[in-house]
Amino acid sequence: MSENLKEILNLLEMDDLNGDTLILAELTGLDIVKKLLLNCDGLTFSLQRVRNMEGLLLRYLKKKYPSKFYSKSEIIKISKEIERPYRETIRLLKKSRFEL
After folding, report:
1. What whole-number distance in Å separates Cα of residue 21 and Cα of residue 37?
2. Which of helix, strand or coil describes residue 47?
3. Residues 6+ apart with CB under 8 A from 30
4. Rounded to two decimals, what is the model's pTM?
5. pLDDT band at 47 (very low <50, low <70, confident <90, very high)
6. Which of 51, 47, 20, 46 minimizes the C-alpha distance to 33?
7. For the chain, which terminus, N or C, has the lower number of CB atoms within 10 Å?
């Protein structure tokens, strides 16, 4: 970490940002963006979709839907809620009963 870069970033304002960096600053704050620029300057990030975080979905399903059996309409409702296909939701519901 260059001391010069730290000194430059101390002057950073929202008006200096654009695109994704500006969105990130609006969501997390300028201090977080400064830390990212200081430590990860120039890196490209890709954030996972929540619906693709299987471990998180399993914990959610286990907590919110502890029953062992579901009607087709309940599974359709859950599928829409977690934004996953019907068959995938069935697999996750079965898995959530036995994991964690």
Report:
1. 9
2. coil
3. 12, 13, 14
4. 0.68
5. confident
6. 20
7. N
